[in-house]
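Annotated sample (chain length 335).
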Amino acid sequence: MYESFYALDKSPFENVPAPEFLFPSAQHQRALSTLQYALVARIGFCVVTGDAGTGKTTTVRRVLQTLDRDTCVGLVSNTHCETFEELMRWILLAFDLDYENLDKVKMYDEFVQFLIGQYQSGQPVTLIIDEAQNLGLDNLEQLRMLSNVNTEKGQILQTILVGQPELWNMLREPNMKQFVQRISYDCELRPFADAGLTREYIEHRVRTAGGPEGLFQDDTFELIFAATGGVPRLINLICDTALIYGFGESESSISAGTIRQVIEDKQANFNLTGAGGADSPTGIPNQAELGSIDLSDKSARRKRTVHLRPDSARPEDEGKLSTIERAALRRKERS
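Output written by the structure step:
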């Protein structure tokens, strides 16, 4: 909708794991280096943790782009499994192996024979399990047992666990000592620590999308950081919505007023009445939490209500339309 207006090749803030948009912060560079070395060394388990929206999946996918084509990779994203048999089915499916009408023993044998065949043909296997914090202690222990095949035939299976911080809480349980001893590499991703890194992240994504310098005005970054706590996924949410609002208002660049309005609307739409951060539905703090940052300035703007008007809306009525309505009308006129 707004890409051509802001001279963008594509949308810079879509909330999908897009490796080309990965921001090369110091912590993300460390995570990349750790994963790359882990994949080359092929020793034990590797664990990647971080809060929701900090870029774990994007980082892993960026590393996978650098892998030799001979490496066989399977990704399991559905980790809400009540039994290990169910998890084994997902693992076999990730490698396009047969799993139907097989019991636990036969599934194990099917997978082990696959691993041995890949190892003998010089195509090592890497299993990546996303959202691993949902596995539970029993399934984690079964994964450790599955890795015993390495001691018999060499390092024929490498496992990378990607999850939220709760994963390490489980791994610190006393009965998980044997599992932890097999973790050779681990890294953690955290939200950006300040508005400076938040600015670098936003400008990096705008540049990657082919956009111009200064698309977001200087006084917007403190507001965005305060509202998101430096979580990339929430930054994307705020910035993408701000570009829609700015397009509807014909703003050549995104102002602090637009960011204030976006934050206020997000608060209202999600009915944030308590503290923000992890306890709120979006992680966006309420106005009281933003301290000296004034989000109540409505002098230049009114509340946006996302109700598109009928096709009969006329250009002369545009001043009466909300921001979203204006954007929709202008897009229709251009097409």
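Annotation: DSSP finds 13 helices and five strands in the chain.
Annotation: Residues 222 and 262 are 14 Å apart (CA to CA).
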